[in-house]
Amino acid sequence: MSGVQEGPSMEQQIREYINQEFVAGQEIPQIKDDTELIESGILDSLSILRLVLFVEERYSLKIAPGDVIRENFETVKAICGYVRKRKTQ
Amino acid sequence: MKAPFLLHQLLAESAQEVPDATAVRSRSQQLSYRELDRLTDGLAAMLQARGLKRGDRVGIYVPKSLASVVSIYSILKAGGVYVPFDPDAPPDRLSYIAKDCDVRILLTCSQKTKRVDEIISKDSPVTTVVLVDCDQDGEKPIPWTPQNSKVSAIGWDKALSNGPPSADVGGSEADTAYILYTSGSTGVPKGVMISHRNSLAFVEWAAECVGLKPGDVVACHAPLHFDISTFSIFSACRAGASTLMIPERAATFPAELSKMIEAERVTVWYSVPSVLTLMILYGDLPARDLSNLRAVVFAGEVFPVKFLRQLMSVIPHARFLNWYGPTETNVCTSYEVTGLLPDSASLPIGKASSGDEVFALTNEGNTMMVPGETGELYVRGPTVMQGYWNDPQKTQAVLVKDPLNPTSEEKVVRTGDFVGIDQDGNYLYFGRKDGMVKTRGYRVELGEIEAALYSHPEVNEVAVVPVKNELAGNLLHAFVSLHEGSPLTEDKILAYCAARLPKYMVPDAVSIEAALPKTSSGKTDRVALSARVSGGVKG
Question: What CATH number did the domain enclosing A84 receive?
């Protein structure tokens, strides 16, 4: 790991993507890193898929179908945790 | 055995024949047929005590759970008509529906009470709200007093303490059983009225077609306001099989869904194709044991053959059925996929089902007979709806005189769907003749979205165009031009839609334009707009 942080953090980038793509169309406040994304209905099956494609492209990794599960996607924090884990593997 | 002529008689029979079999399961909770029968007797009696009369409409506003099925049978047993409210729809739309069909009693559950307060505010016809908290095992319900002081709330504990419903409220197969609200082109949803006879014609045919029997586990993936749900609820009940209610949020992750199919030993699946496509791509299907799954049925949109083939190769032992029919007729044609089709082929919708007759008329008004012709599909028979609630004008446009038999009193449904026919007499779906599109399996009138956008005072012009998408069928892209100097943003426009339309109708993207392109005749050039987004909705 480089440890060098440039520009917005991963949390910020993913939060912004979700806010822009999925929250804008709903009458709810902007999300935070620990906002529950699934039970709250912010993300549905199709938006999860778009998020997966975004994360794959943005962070240059391939997400296996078996990894597209609740514990990896239920909050921005969880998504970043998953991406970091994958990046260090 | 007497032939049932009312939907809830199916429950009475299964409670007699297989009392201890599981009728419905959700998360880790379940009810046997005996329990479901007794519980719904009690609740039906309470509804009657609260003044419910035969033919009265009762709203159901619950997430998918045991409460969904308990509510349905309680209302039917009491002689009422059930009206499912989309749990994800904005309160304004639900208050409209409550007013439109005069819902005085609303069945809901504790977790929805905040939203209920919004729905029943002001001039709502609702006077009684019943909390059907049968899923909250041991959990104490949160005390709730409706903000609208004219409304009384009945807790689950009180709802339970009733005896069976008064001996016989009467009932005819011609009574309305439920009203399903679908998108309407003029800006407000319209209520499709389905009688017991309409529903039973499909329910019984479908149970036979799939060969449902005790021991089958039938997954209920669709929401209650989508007629796909009637198969997993009523056809399963007729066969003494079990219904597995899949909670909305459990369906978010394809891998969770496929895990549930494995763990719950689902034997019969019926959903829109896009759900199956997502499971093929992200459901990790090869890692699952799907040996129990013996029939996969899909309807509501066109299933791309390449995904269907992949599905068939992962579950080679299962039967695959393509069903077709608008809400106005439920399923009226069926096609069993037996061989492998080339990727380029389109899947036939098949031949008439549910005791219906279907035929297509060409532009010249002739019956379409041979491959190569195109015609509009008509449906005659027992599943044909009673009409749209409180809307004779729209009813007349869709329920028309039988063009093949003009002296007959019997009305047929003019579907607005263009079809062809193949060598074997199977119908092929070509498309719509109007502004209706399918997205995620839901039918959406583009005009309804446009009407919602036009209602904004700063909006000048609007056009919503469908964008073909492999997973969703179509995504929706709204083009909007604004009055000069308007500070509206794309996000604000989306939020405005979200407050007025159910989630599946909110556009996937919005573009603000200086002006919309016009054709030579001065109409909005939808073709040009479509071409602009044919590469896909951004994101």
Answer: 1.10.1200.10
